Amino acid sequence: MYPSQEAVFERLFTRIAADGRGRELFGRESCSPLMERLAAACLGQALPEYYLEFPLGGKPWLDMLVLYSVEQLKKRASFSGPDPHGYRAIFKEACTWDVPKLCMGTELDFSRDAGEVPGFYISGAWDQDLVRRVYRALGEGEERVESTVAVLQRIPQDWRPYYIGAMPGRPGAPLRLGFTAPPECVARYAGSQAALRADLEACGFTALSSEMLELLAQIAELGLGYDVQFDVLADGSLGPVLGVSLFAMSQTNALTRESFATGTAARLMGMLEQRGLADERWRRVPECLFVDRMYYGEDQQLKTLGLICRANFAKVKWTDGRPGTAKFYLAAKGFDVDAESLAAAGVALSAPSRHPERSER
What is 271-322 written as a DSSP string? Predict the structure, then answer.
């Protein structure tokens, strides 16, 4: 029998949170209190990617985005069951859309009231037409759809649309737009706060500060890309919050560990720590990374499911130009593999044990 999403997540979380990391990073050692809300986000046997979000300073907490690829939804999803927010219906409809690399999911804010309506995200090679489809499916009026599309028309030419979302549980129910500014674009901001200011103001964002521009220009010198996030309010204006995700991670966990030890990630985290936006807990991130496997099925026909946790990005959010504590995101998932592909990912498979619950550490 194929493993349940809850069983896969519990296996991933237990490994990530071991050796005191759960308490230090997330404020919890067990994922048991999370399982009821996670179960509501499960779509049959489809395997999502879990983006675990936690602060790099202050009181620890955990939020999580549960993100499905359309391929997984088409392959294993079930859209039956309670659908209080209408998201399952959107997932089902989106499986008919011809959009490359389309992913969608819900945000479970465990640090907030359990009764709050979860956020909805969709990412991929999207454009204005997809914005219209998604927001209409969410029940947004035509006026708000058009005001959001107007933001798209103002972004710098070399920024790439990355994700769109809705936050109905947040004050003002903002619609969220994310854009990727690739390293070659960000390079022009290095040492040039004026260029960065001009691009942000052209988007319609005016809640700027010298501290914000100084830090982003300094980070630009590291050769990183940005993921820039705006909130579009009901009147079509951009809200006072700017989120910038900073990508300093590598394709493999081994290279990411090196980056955290002596490379770009270490320099980035050092900048955040020096400004009081992070403390020493970022040094535990490399301990969370792994590639592993679990077995499932009957003893005579055991199958393998890969398990992986990767570092994703750090993020700083400013409100009215004032920075908050930086956050970090880990990306963890289970994935279908055979012995050859799992070995290539860095795990040598031995003969299946008669105890499927056992896994290499």
Answer: HHHHTTS--GGGGGGGGG-EEEEEEES-GGG-EEEEEEEEEEEEEEEEETTE
Q: How far apart are CA 331 and CA 323, in angstroms?
A: 24
Can you tell me whether residue 40 is helix, strand or coil?
Answer: helix
Among 148, 62, 70, smallest CA distance to 110 is for 62
How far is residue 191's CA from residue 211's CA, in Å, rounded to a whole number? 14
Residue 124, exposed/middle/buried by CB under 10 A (0-12, 13-18, 19+)? buried
The amino acid at residue 23 is R
Residue 354: per-residue pLDDT: 37
Contact (Cβ atoms closer than 8 angstroms) between residue 15 and residue 293: no
Burial of 204 (0-12, 13-18, 19+ CB in 10 A): middle
Q: What angle do CA 221, 223, 225 make, to 5 degrees?
A: 115
Residue 74, token pair as written in the block: 């088409």
191: how many CB neighbours lie within 10 A of its CB? Answer: 12
Element holding 137 (H helix, E strand)? helix 128-137
The secondary element (H helix, E strand) that includes residue 107 is strand 103-108
Sign of the C-alpha dihedral computed for residues 306, 309, 310 and 316 taken in this order = positive
How many CB atoms are closer than 10 A to CB 90? 19
Q: Which amino acid is at 121?
A: Y
pLDDT in tens, 118-167: 889 999 877 788 888 888 888 887 888 888 888 888 999 999 988 988 88
Contact between 260 and 283 under an 8 Å Cβ cutoff? The reply is yes
